[in-house]
Amino acid sequence: MHDLVNDLAKSVSGEFRFRIEGDNVQDIPKRTRHIWCCLDLEDGARKLKQIHKIKGLHSLMVEAQGYGDRRFKIGTDVQHNLYSRLQYLRMLSFHGCSISELADEIRNLKLLRYLDLPYTEITSLPNSVCMIYNLQTLLLEECWKLTELPLDFGKLINLRDLNLKGTHIKKMPTKIGGLSNLEMLTDFVVGEKCGSDIVQLAELKYLQGMLRISGLKNVIDPADALAANMKDKKHLEELSLSYDEWRDMNQSVTEAQIFILEALQPNINLMRLTIKDYGGSSFPYWLGDYHLPNLVSLELLGCKLRSQLPPLGQFPSLKNLFISGCDGIEIIGTEFYGYNSSNVSFKSLETLRFEHMSEWKEWLCLECFPLLQELCIKHCPKLKSSLPQHLPSLQKLEIIDCQELAASIPMAANISELELKRCDDKLINELPATLKRVILCGTQVIRSSIEQILFNCAFLEELEVEDFFGPNLEWSSLDMCSCNSLCALTITVWHTSSFPFTLHLFTNLHSLALYDCPWLESFFGRQLPFNLCSLRIEICPNLTASREEWGLFQLNFLKQLCVSDDFKILESFPEESLLPSTINSLELINCSNLRIINYKGLLHLTSLEYLYIEDCPCLERLPEEDLPSSLSTLSIHDCPLLKKLYQREQGERWHTICHIPSVTIS
Predict the structure, then answer these.
(1) DSSP notation for 241-282
(2) How far is residue 91's CA from residue 94's CA, in Å, rounded to a whole number?
(3) What is the pLDDT, as a whole number, of residue 340?
(4) What angle do CA 436, 422, 328 make, to 5 degrees?
């Protein structure tokens, strides 16, 4: 019975819905009430002429096809025809279309309830929009050229949803507080010399979801902030308070900012809070203990004057904490954990991130963080000690650009991801054997840890190594626990002549990428892992010169190969019998001296589907008749000689490749 009802509903709705795409423009049934169409440059106008005939249309959803100048432009003349003929529209969407302004005639759409204009280049809205009194939803997300809303915007008394995310609105229109039915307002901007406008928030009692208040630097009187009545907006779940920029302020302004932020206390149901570029010397009392019992996520960004952090450890529900750019912090001490010694601090915290703390020197670590899964410390150049040592739930640890840090890796039985970049060798003591993914950057970090990781981590699956300068590493043994587990290996900027390990020992290695290894002469042992599926070699001149010694032809599982040659080694590629027949993707990038793609090296590539050629200025032509019949995608970029020959419809040799299903030449 359910299937019969479902089929009946589909058949009935099918009479009223119509979809127009491609170049097939047919007569639209007169009973159609909802149309989705994709307008392209060639026949966009023809499609619209058909749509104009459907006088009773209720919803029109338009999407653009193509990019830049290749998109159909929805100018005011096009809109004039639409708005004058389709006056029964309830819903209109120009999502991502090439439209820079709305025609005044939009006032004709008296019944319109839903207007969708995101990702367009609209610079302003006509005041006539404010005559669409039934409008309930206005979506302007990522209209990055939009700087203001119409003067009479307050007349849209039925508006419920207003999305301004990603716009550059400089101030809110007067009487926006009169839109008492608003439920979604993504952004409220306090304009310059308009500090008292924040009072308009008081009347918006039904706001829910997320709200970002920016321009708080322009609020002068704490009484205005208090009048906004943020504490009673019980349905707001996420709040961002932004001052937009940090600047030096005198003592009186600094004190005023303290009282203003104090007055903006959110409702107790708030789940996510961001405070950005706050210039006060202390945080408000409500940012601590039990004033926000449901807070799950907190971000403190660019709060430079504070000398100590608020007592955040007693938030019972806090899972994510991100602190960045708080340059006044030198020591994180006991105040950070809260004042209730009977409770475990940060008992729910799962992610903790510190970034760009330029003056932070010391972290007093207490026994807490029982559920912490991710710890990230980035760009804290003066931090010397220490790190929490007992993190039973830790799974991921990132320490980047902390050159002075002299601390041990936390003890964590479940840690699986480790990233250490430019931290010298002071961190390394005993690394956990449970690691699955590791990123190492910097000579000292690599020298002190890579051997231990490869020899002890029997579950290691991914290893990335970057920036090694120094003499060749020599190991006494090659009995590595990771031999059977490692699946992906990436080595970038390795400035020695060899690796300390032989690659063929990694029996399950599927992906190998080498970038900028100019002194590397050959693969140690001259053999690659038999199960290798993907190989990328870029800026490795000595290695590229010895390519016929790699034994690629024996790799029966190799499917993807990328070669880049900045040093003009390659003139002809690939050599006959160089590649295995299993290759389905071949990329040639930045081969500045490559003149010929050797057809003899392609004849047996019966699985090749994707050929990508980029920045090969000397490449004269393609091996046209000898391109594998399996080839389905050909992409050519920044190859002037090839572009001239094979330009779509215009090139002298276009006809030799036009049978390939997908061809891109730019």
Answers:
(1) EE-SS-----HHHHHHHHHHHHHT---TT--EEEEES---SS
(2) 10
(3) 66
(4) 110
N residues, the chain: 666
Q: What is the reported pLDDT for 187?
A: 97
Token couple for 346: 């940060």
User: Measured between alpha carbons, how far is 609 from 621 in angstroms, rounded to an integer?
Assistant: 19
Sequence-separated (6 or more) residues with CB below 8 Å from residue 258: 280, 281, 282, 284
The amino acid occupying position 474 is E
Reported as a single tens digit per residue, the pLDDT across 309-318 is 888 998 999 9
Residue whose token pair is 């060749």:
472
Domain boundaries, the chain: 416-533, 559-666
How far, in Å, CA of 207 to CA of 187, rounded?
A: 11
Query: What separation, in Å, do the N-terminal and C-terminal C-alpha atoms of the chain show?
Result: 56
What is the Cα–Cα distance from 639 to 617, expressed in whole angstroms?
A: 5
Q: Which two tokens stand for residue 323?
A: 């602190």
Tokens matching residue 650: 């215009």
Residue 531: closest CA among 558, 550, 513:
558
8 A C-beta contact, residue 406 and residue 428: no
In DSSP notation, 19-63 reads EE-TT---PPPTT--EEEEEEBTTTHHHHHHHHHT-TT--EEEEE
CB burial of 65-92 (b: ≥16 within 10 Å; e: otherwise) equals beeeeebbebeeebbebbbebbebbbbb
Whether the predicted pLDDT of 86 surpasses 80: yes
| Cis upstream peptide for 386 (omega within 30°) | yes
CB-count exposure of residue 371 (10 Å: 0-12, 13-18, 19+): middle
Could you tell me if 361 and 382 are in contact, meaning their C-beta atoms sit under 8 angstroms apart?
yes
* Count of C-beta atoms within a 10 Å radius of residue 378: 17
Distance between CA atoms of 603 and 581, rounded to whole angstroms?
Answer: 9
Chain segment 393-412, per-residue pLDDT in tens: 999 999 999 988 887 788 78
Res 352 pLDDT > 50: yes
Report yes or no on whether pTM surpasses 0.85.
yes
Q: How far is CA 242 from CA 167, 300, 358, in A?
A: 15, 10, 21
* 574: preceding bond cis by omega (within 30 degrees): yes
Mark residue 540 as left, alpha or beta (left: phi above 0; alpha: psi -120 to 50; beta: remaining): beta
Amino acid identity, position 226: L
**Tokens encoding 606:** 């019966």
Contact between 560 and 535 under an 8 Å Cβ cutoff? The reply is yes
Q: Which residues pair with 611 in a beta bridge?
A: 586, 634
Distance CA 336, CA 309 (A): 6
pLDDT digits (tens, 9 = 90+) for 242-288: 997 655 555 666 778 889 999 999 999 999 999 999 988 888 989 87
Q: How far apart, in whole angstroms, are the C-alpha atoms of residue 16 and residue 118?
A: 26
